[in-house]
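Re: the 185-residue chain
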Amino acid sequence: MRTVFYTASTLNGFLADPHDDLQWLFDVEEEGGPDPGTFISTTAAGVCGSATYEWVLAHEAPLDVAGSWNESMIGTSPLFLFTHRDLPIPEGADVRILSGPVADHLPTLEAVVGDGVLWVIGGGDLAGQFLDAGALDEIRVDVAPATLPAGKPLLPRALGPDRLRLVSAQQAGQFARLTYEVLPG
């Protein structure tokens, strides 16, 4: 299994504002911008935390809109949801609830993903838990031309240059796409 944290971030390293709002991302001109669809099509499964999941349900895949889950970006099948809460699951969605430490669930994830790619969809802390477990292989971040005064950090862990190797840097519209290999600790 290859685990990839692929997300978008503000220039100063925030995934969302303090209230989990992503409006800064949608304010960026999209023409020539990132097309995550190509990456998503290469993934065997996705994983996210409850804040990302609830944001998608509220903004991209409302429970009362038939088929919206499969049309949403997070509609990766299957999706593993790390949460301690009882959250609704859209009809027909392959959402599998996990709770507890990421390390405890690696065998389950590896059994489903096999030699494929597991996409860590959102949540810098969840990506950090994969890092802590020695199971984060790559970080891809589309850096937007926006800043926030505060918010949810990209990766709330200390990770030095001895652990990151730049694989590529390219322009995607107004975004800078950076891809780093995460080296063993």
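Residues 102-113 form the longest helix (12 residues).
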